[in-house]
Amino acid sequence: MAVPFVDLKAQYAALKPEIDRAIQAVVDRCDFILGQAVSEFEGEFARFCEVRHAIGVANGTDALRLGLLAAGIGPGDEVITAANTFIATTEAISQTGAAFRLVDVDERTYNLNPALLEEAITPRTKAILPVHLYGQPADMDLILDVARRHNLLVMEDACQAHGARYKGRRAGSMGHLAAFSFYPAKNLGAYGDAGAVVTDDEALARKLDLLRNHGQKSKYEHVMEGYCSRLDTLQAAVLRVKLRHLDEWNARRRQVAAWYNERLADLPVVRPHVLPDVEHVYHLYVIRTERRDALREFLAARGIGTGMHYPIPLPLTEAYSGMGFRKGQFPVTERLAGEILSLPMFAEMTEAHVDEVAGAIREFFAGA
Ligand SMILES: *Cc1c(COP(=O)(O)O)cnc(C)c1O
């Protein structure tokens, strides 16, 4: 049996009548730009995240960028983030005119190591941008404590952690603001690009509402220059349908992870480490082995899809070759890049799928 890395079609098949109706309703209304479904989704997503405001934007990268801009981050400022992340995190910082400073990650959780935060702070530091990688919240109490002591803004990159919890609190509700991506393969995915910023801060919410829509307060009344980065109404309509299923899908992902944990327990791979009092939402189920490339090939030959998040350490990627990063500067991130493997993970996976993947991994190590 082939097992794909993700299967978006299985989810659509389960929801087809609801999704088709929601899309048709937008087409019937023709309210394509900031239409009814956008404000409805914003209200529902804010409630889901247990915050006051959600502002829909064009994608997750813009959610990060506009969030930082709304908070006043710009040229001359520094923002600290994790070295093990997707380039969107650092792109968003750079695009505000600020500089990013990378901190290595924790060997067990693969998230920003709070113990390394303080030494990365300079007089220019304005914000910390923790990433809740793979669906597990970063250790926010330690991060928020450093931020408070140094009077820094905290914006969460929650693009992989819709619905996750840290000591009871939802991902996205702990910092001053948080960014979400609804890229199709995320735990809550649109049918194209989409994103949102969430915050409890009324002033930031108002600013974001202006920034995403040409600085427009009312039609042609521009109180500032903004951007064109609105959440598409069709995407909002799809997201409204899917949001109603998100908690159940995340519970399903935890079940799939539990099946993997059980079946991989006696094999020479490192399984995900979950912090106490955290609800991981397993955007990705990531294992570690020094024989990663051979295992990946072995699984591919059996029709099992895998991913690597991420195979090239961000500081060593070509885009940043002029920034003076050295090999060995981020030892954990660099080691992970050669050893991590993301196994198939989606809410519709069955126990038989997991048996297939785990069985193949067992076979790989038995033949080694
Ligand atoms: C997906 C993702 C983003 C950006 O999302 P887009 O919607 O593709 O712009 C940012 N950060 C992380 C960690 C992500 O996984």
What does this structure look like?
- With 368 residues, the chain is an alpha/beta fold.
- It folds into two domains: 8-243, Type I PLP-dependent aspartate aminotransferase-like (Major domain) (Aspartate Aminotransferase, domain 2, 3-Layer(aba) Sandwich); 246-366, Aspartate Aminotransferase, domain 1 (Alpha-Beta Complex), CATH 3.90.1150.10.
- 38% of the residues lie in helices and 15% in strands.
- It contains eleven helices and 14 strands.
- The protein has helices spanning 8-29, 36-49, 60-70, 87-95, 140-149, 202-211, 233-243, 246-264, 292-301, 331-339, 351-366; strands at residues 53-57, 78-82, 99-103, 125-129, 153-157, 165-166, 169-170, 177-181, 195-199, 216-218, 221-222, 278-279, 285-288, 340-343.
- Strands 1-9-8-5-4-2-3 form a seven-stranded mixed beta sheet, with helices on both faces.
- Helix 3 (60-70) runs parallel beside helix 4.
- The longest helix is centred in the N-terminal third of the chain and has 22 residues, at 8-29.
- The model has no long low-confidence stretch (mean pLDDT 97).
- Bound molecules: pyridoxal-5'-phosphate.
- Residues 59-61, 85-86, 88-89, 131, 157, 159-160, 181, 183, 193, 195 line the site of pyridoxal-5'-phosphate (PLP).
Q: Helicity range of the residues? A: 25-40%
Count of domain modules: 2
Strand order of the largest sheet: 1-9-8-5-4-2-3
Number of helices: 11
- Summarize model confidence as the mean pLDDT: 97
- Percent strand equals 5-15%
CATH class of the largest domain: Alpha Beta
CATH superfamily of the largest domain: Type I PLP-dependent aspartate aminotransferase-like (Major domain)
| CATH architecture call of the largest domain | 3-Layer(aba) Sandwich
Instruction: Give the total of beta strands.
Output: 14
